[in-house]
């Protein structure tokens, strides 16, 4: 029995691909982050950033918090802020799925929608202006070390333990880069030979949750030395794979997870042997109003 909902964050399942991976010499595992109480991998940094921020005195229960988000971090922050009784405003592009917007509001957060023409970068600019002019405090997932450290202390150790230290390749989509940075840091400390593969969209592809940032918006927490290789995926392949994951493996996830799984499966087909872990970062039910599963 847990004392708090927040105690249920982490320790997510690791399941082996039984259908899509056809290389008998390679084990491919999916880490199901949708099993977190807020439904995504972002529950981990959301909890770590708020808990540690309160403990350090970076903000208090009287503070007005704000954060720009493409969805999952916002849901995690809304959930955690609600448990702590904090006031938080979440800023996101207006073309975000209605499930995400309504979930944040259900947790008690204020949601502000910015023009889809300026994307998440515009949402970040809006949040920055509120900090500069209206006494808001930014949670700052893009520059807060508590983001990647959440994965250093939880995701990395879980992956290492659940593969009995046999992991050879870790595959993760790259957004804020917290997941890949923190998990890489831990895994490389255990075995420097583990290969860390980042996934980004091909030029012109739009895949929610995966970003190829313009130079001025690259997250401050990103350390390119933590990533051995960056591989690219297009929108069509990410969509097809999200559908295959659901229909053939019973794994219901979003497009960014489909993108990571695409790269993980390509890798599995090329290796002579190995143990691959690919992050399934959220659940598919927050995309039902989109055309992902049409």
Automatic annotation (TrEMBL):
Family matches, as PROSITE patterns: CYS_SYNTHASE (PS00901)
Q: Per its UniProt record, what Pfam families does this chain match?
A: PALP
Q: For this protein, what is the EC number?
A: 2.5.1.47
Q: What class of enzyme is it?
A: transferase
The UniProt record lists the keyword Membrane: no
Co-factor(s) = pyridoxal 5'-phosphate
Which keywords are on file for this protein? Amino-acid biosynthesis, Cysteine biosynthesis, Pyridoxal phosphate, Transferase
Name the pathway: Amino-acid biosynthesis; L-cysteine biosynthesis; L-cysteine from L-serine: step 2/2
- Write out the GO MF terms: cysteine synthase activity
**Which InterPro entries does the record cross-reference, listed alphabetically?**
Cys_synth, Cys_Synth/Cystath_Beta-Synth, P-phosphate_BS, TrpB-like_PALP, TrpB-like_PALP_sf
Annotated Tryptophan synthase beta chain-like PALP domain residues:
7-282
**Protein's name according to its UniProt entry:** cysteine synthase
Q: Which organism is it from?
A: Croceitalea rosinachiae
Q: What is the lineage of its organism?
A: Bacteria, Pseudomonadati, Bacteroidota, Flavobacteriia, Flavobacteriales
Gene (name only): cysM
């Amino acid at each position: 029995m847990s004392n708090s909902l927040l105690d249920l964050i982490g320790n997510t399942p690791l399941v082996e691909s039984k259908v899509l991976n056809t290389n008998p010499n390679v084990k491919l595992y999916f880490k199901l982050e949708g099993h977190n109480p807020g439904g995504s991998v972002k529950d981990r940094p959301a909890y770590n950033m708020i808990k540690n921020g309160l403990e350090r005195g970076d903000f208090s229960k009287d503070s007005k918090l704000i954060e720009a988000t493409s969805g999952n971090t916002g849901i995690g922050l809304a959930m955690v802020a609600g448990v702590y009784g904090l006031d938080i405003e979440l800023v996101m592009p207006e073309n975000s799925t209605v499930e995400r917007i309504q979930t944040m509001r259900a947790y008690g957060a204020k949601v502000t929608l910015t023009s889809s023409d300026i994307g998440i970068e515009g949402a970040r600019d809006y949040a920055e202006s509120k900090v500069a002019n209206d006494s808001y405090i930014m949670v700052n997932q893009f520059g807060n070390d508590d983001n990647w450290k959440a994965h250093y202390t939880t995701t990395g150790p879980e992956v290492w333990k659940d593969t009995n230290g046999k992991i050879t390749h870790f595959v993760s989509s790259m957004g804020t880069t917290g997941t890949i940075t923190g998990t890489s840091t831990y895994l490389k400390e255990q075995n420097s030979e583990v290969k860390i593969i980042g996934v980004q969209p091909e030029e012109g592809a739009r895949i929610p949750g995966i970003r190829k940032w313009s130079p001025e918006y690259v997250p401050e927490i990103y350390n390119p030395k933590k990533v051995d290789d960056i591989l690219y995926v297009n929108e069509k392949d990410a969509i097809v794979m999200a559908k295959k994951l659901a229909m053939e493996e019973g794994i219901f996830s979003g497009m960014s997870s489909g993108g990571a799984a695409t790269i993980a499966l390509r890798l599995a087909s090329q290796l002579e042997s190995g143990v691959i872990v690919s992050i399934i970062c959220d659940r598919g039910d927050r995309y039902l109003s989109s055309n992902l599963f049409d």
